[in-house]
Amino acid sequence: MASVPNQISAIQAAREIAAGRLTSEALVRACLGRIAERDPTVLAWAFLNPDLALEQARACDRGPKRGVLHGVPVGVKDVIDTVDMPTAYNSPIYAGHRPRADAACVAAVRRAGAVILGKTETTEFANNHPARTRNPHNLSHTPGGSSSGSAAAVADYMVPFAFGTQTGGSTIRPAAFCGIVGYKPTFNTINRGGMKFVAESLDTIGTHARSVEDAALLACAASGRPMPEFSRFKGKPKVGVYRTPHWDKTDERTRMLLADVVDKLRAAGWTVVDADLPPQAVAIYDANSTIMQFEEAYSLGYEFDVHRAQLSEDLTARIERGRATSRDLYERAIDVVLEVGAMFVDAFRSVDVLLTPSAPGEAPFGLTTTGNALFNRNWTTLGLPCVTIPVGQGPKGLPLGVQFVGPYRGDSTVLLAADAAWKAISR
């Protein structure tokens, strides 16, 4: 076991606690110590109550094992309700807001024995207006968004894993920018009850971790799905490289790294081919924007009508655009999703997973943007499972990732493929 408990994986932590070699209190204290050291500059946490976290940990140490996460701390993005901690959605409208119940995913991981360490920072209502969080690799750069705090906290060893959410690219992109694993499951795999919606037909709860197995563990505990058998998997899935219609938006280092990943996979005996889709597939990007803006105009209708002065200018403008979007245009966008979805069903008949960049490049400089979701929006809109893994660094020394995408409900396939690929290219 690592000499510093907060640096071990969640799976190892759970094993050490179960074996009596580590207490939940010691693990939580190590996480809190790291937070005290680093969070004054990283600013990953929206709410933290050390006494409450330690109380939960001691209860785990006193009582019988409750489940697979027994005694392991988890961070919760602050758009997901917690009964014992405020949930403010990074909005002054909800400052100090105390939900009357846990979100479904929080209740599930509590049943599995998890310690809810605290609430991680989010952009305003999980939208575009940035959070205060900084990238732990370089404080002058964004950590991505909207799951800014979750990605930064996990990357900086403040917590083993955390919940994020994704409407466009809000789980995958921050993970790539912060050099960790991000997992966006198939749409609605993790129950969304108690989550503040942006766009109900897009919003997906995902996980951030420092390994694919840890990301899967949290998601499986939250959803009731069986854990993929990582240790027994010896396969080499067939990979289709999909450069997407936005390949020209990637930087040179991203293109080089993707090519390097392909070379290493082929050298390890994997079959890697180009996956070209009809040019009509590009329509999915505009469809995502139309659906998101139309639906968030309803999701945030109360806040806009009653508390407009407390919304950012950016969010106000988005809601206004959503209200100006006709129902007919929205329904045509839904039709586009169905049409493009059929194209990807065909694509997965010839490959097991797709490989794409996770983002156009490394995390942008400054804190006024969270980066570009060009390489994420299509998968979110289609409801497909995605896993990003860190594979290198950009020209400024910041992390870069590649993303594996699986077929609808092919979560085990994409998790196993991403984990096996990461091990193959790391040898």
Task: Using brief descriptors, characterize the structure shown.
Amidase signature (AS) enzymes, 427 residues, alpha/beta, eleven-stranded mixed sheet, 11 strands
Q: Portion of residues in helices?
A: 40-55%
CATH architecture of the domain at 8-231: Alpha-Beta Complex
**Which value, in Å, is the CA radius of gyration?**
20 Å
Going by helix content, strand content and strand pairing, the class is alpha/beta
Strand content: 5-15%
Number of helices: 14
Mean pLDDT: 97
Biggest sheet descriptor: 11 strands, mixed
- CATH topology grouping of the domain at 8-231: Amidase signature (AS) enzymes
Shape verdict: globular
Strand order of the largest sheet: 1-3-2-4-6-5-10-11-9-7-8
Terminal CA distance reads 22 Å
- CATH homologous superfamily title of the domain at 8-231: Amidase signature (AS) domain
The ordered string of helix (H) and strand (E) elements is: HHEHEHEHEHEEHEHEHHHHEHEEH
